[in-house]
Specification:
mainly alpha; elongated; about 140 residues
Amino acid sequence: MNVTRRPAGMSSGDWIEALIHQAEREGKFDCVAHAPDPMAGVDPNSADDENWWLKKLINREGLTVMPEMLAVKKDVSALRCGLAEVPNERELRTRCTELNRRIIAADLDNSSPVAKDIAPIDIDQMVGRWRTARMERGWNACWS
């Protein structure tokens, strides 16, 4: 029975059963036992979350939900807010250099003029702010 349409006079249930039996005879289900479980890692308690499958896909594929330019802005803001906690100048310069690399890459990848409102960090200016922030906290920082 190699049919793609339900034969006239045959119920849908009988037709589906016939297709399943045909596939079984042809061996189309032989490797199903070794196939990965599509529900692996699904929390049964998250049944109320209608987006569970999307969250699983994002996690499995390592996708980011946030556009890179927005993620860079967030990271620059986090650096500025936590400036006094950066342990030393070398670490600060490393972080600023990496953020500048990401800013330039995101700017090149982004064709929207609306999102091009972030400039590379002036590292020497950031170091000056870092020193001021550390002194205001009363820390005698080791500058190297």
